[in-house]
Specification:
By secondary structure, the chain is α/β, with parallel strands linked by helices. The radius of gyration is 34 Å and the shape is elongated. About 7% of the residues have low confidence.
Length: 494
């Protein structure tokens, strides 16, 4: 182990377990604030985790003193631990304390409870058992009910690592014992969740994690929970080469981390070896080891636009009247059924102009499936553009072509020819209103991912354009429940 790694381990240990101010720790170790900040980010350390760790350390000191025979009050006074918190933690860890016995030890009270429960199991009444252990019948009854429900356990005190399980919102060992007990009684996940005051999904995940060949095992589940808390954890992308390769492949085809995460969940299921959150991918790209994953990518830019701020809105004057846009072609005449995307066959389209303004790409996207068609235009006059659109809406696609919403560009001046040839209802947006064809605007932005502004389209081949179209249609989309546009369009052809 290198000197830097040893120093890093010393810092992490001191940060979590040394109650002195952090600047004092840094001065003692000879570590700069910048270096400490980098180590804290890589290890996931923050003030809340430091505070929890220090509290746990103090609590372990209380437990050690109590187990040695000291009273609880003297132990917490010596350590300086809050009394109410100490009693709660001790109870959670199976060291049930009798509050009235201020001088007794936890071990003494635990033995007293065990003796009372043994007498009850032997057939003695609560009153008879209480007389033996010098407690009231109501107290013994409460012990017995807690024990039967799993809220009170009398096994040996947990190890230091085990005792850390259950802080905050996590399930604790007593919860797991109660889950096992209720399952044996035939209760459903919903009923167990209601009894524990937890979400049903939390209980379902816990049962799945604690399952063995003999059913849910509370002790096995507890051990697994402790193991999951171990830090530092090996990162999935470092230990699973197959997953790493798929993530890199997705990023290189310009999928977002969210698209990658949800597509893998759809293909391989959630929670398995091939599942990963989008946040984990972002961490690997920009934080962990100064973006080690990013160094393996072909792509450079993180944001699609590459901008650092918002683009100002246009203040151009409204366009004049277009002679080819009759009253029936205006978007105000478009059927309201187009808006809800429930029925396929409604398209949006526009041109993307290349360098020099001579060449262009014509893009059309179907509103419900997000299926995209892209074609190259060596010139983008009206006749050429309309002929290309007539060609695009041929074959199977023609069967799911009802309307086309377009900008007011002059390239569609021969709109009557398109309408007659394909029986297509064409509608033009209002001047300077790209939000009226939002799906196409977003799609053009995705195309710009591959062909940034200033790109020379004259060098593009039809094969190049087809490749971009295939990439977009083969990309899982959140709006489609992580299905691909090519999958959704194929459903319409069946």
């Amino acid at each position: 182990m290198s000197g830097d790694e040893k120093l890093r381990e010393r810092f992490v240990e001191a940060y979590l377990h040394d109650a002195r101010p952090v600047p004092v720790i840094l001065k003692e170790l000879g570590v700069s604030k910048v270096q400490a900040r980098a180590w804290r980010q890589s290890e996931g350390l923050n003030r809340a985790r430091r505070q929890r760790s220090l509290v746990d350390k103090q609590y372990q000191q209380v437990v050690a003193l109590v187990e040695s025979g000291r009273s609880v009050l003297s132990a917490i006074e010596e350590v300086g631990f809050p009394q109410r918190l100490a009693y709660r933690y001790l109870a959670q860890d199976g060291l049930e304390l009798v509050r009235g016995n201020r001088g007794g030890t936890a071990q003494h009270d635990r033995d007293r409870i065990a003796q009372a429960l043994k007498l009850v199991d032997a057939g003695k009444s609560y009153k008879q058992a209480g007389q033996v252990v010098d407690r009231s019948a109501d107290t013994v009854k409460a012990w017995h009910h807690d024990h039967m429900s799993g809220r009170l356990i009398l096994n040996d005190h947990p190890t230091e690592s085990e005792s850390k399980v259950g802080r905050g919102k996590r399930l604790i060992r007593h919860d797991r014992i109660e889950i096992a007990y209720l399952l044996k009684q035939g209760h459903t996940h919903r009923e167990i969740a209601a009894q524990l005051g937890r979400n049903q999904s939390t209980i379902s995940r816990e049962i799945a994690r604690g399952m063995t060949e003999h059913g849910y095992d509370a002790l096995v589940a507890q051990k697994r929970a402790v193991d999951r808390l171990a830090r530092p954890k090996p990162r999935k992308l470092d230990t699973n080469p197959q997953l790493r390769a798929l993530v890199i492949e997705g990023l290189n085809t310009k999928w977002s981390p969210e698209q990658i995460s949800n597509y893998l969940a759809r293909c391989f299921g959630k929670g398995g070896d091939m599942s990963i959150s989008h946040e984990t991918i972002y961490q690997a790209l920009y934080i962990q080891a100064k973006g080690a994953l990013r160094q393996e990518l072909k792509v450079e830019k993180a944001l699609r636009s590459g901008r650092t701020g918002r683009k100002p809105q246009s203040r151009l004057p409204a366009r004049g009247n277009r002679s080819w846009i009759g009253e029936d072609y205006r978007i105000s005449k478009r059927p309201a059924s187009v808006e809800d995307r429930a029925v396929p066959g409604h398209w949006e389209g526009d041109l993307i102009i290349g360098q020099g303004g001579t060449t262009a790409l014509v893009t059309c996207v179907e509103r419900s499936t997000r299926y995209t068609m892209i074609r190259k235009l060596d010139v983008h006059d009206s006749a050429t553009t309309v002929d290309k659109l007539i060609e695009m809406f041929t074959g199977k696609i023609r069967n799911i072509t009802k309307t086309l919403t377009w900008d007011q560009g002059v390239e569609l001046a021969q709109v009557d020819k398109l309408s007659i040839a394909r029986g297509l209802a064409v509608y033009f947006c209002d001047p300077h209103s790209p939000w009226q064809r939002p799906t196409n605007e977003n799609t053009n932005g995705l195309v710009r991912d591959f062909l940034p502004k200033g790109s020379d389209f004259s060098t593009l081949t039809d094969k190049d354009v087809q490749h971009i179209q295939d990439l977009l249609n083969g990309r899982p989309r959140k709006v489609l429940d992580w299905y691909k546009p090519e999958e959704k369009i194929q459903e319409l052809f069946k």
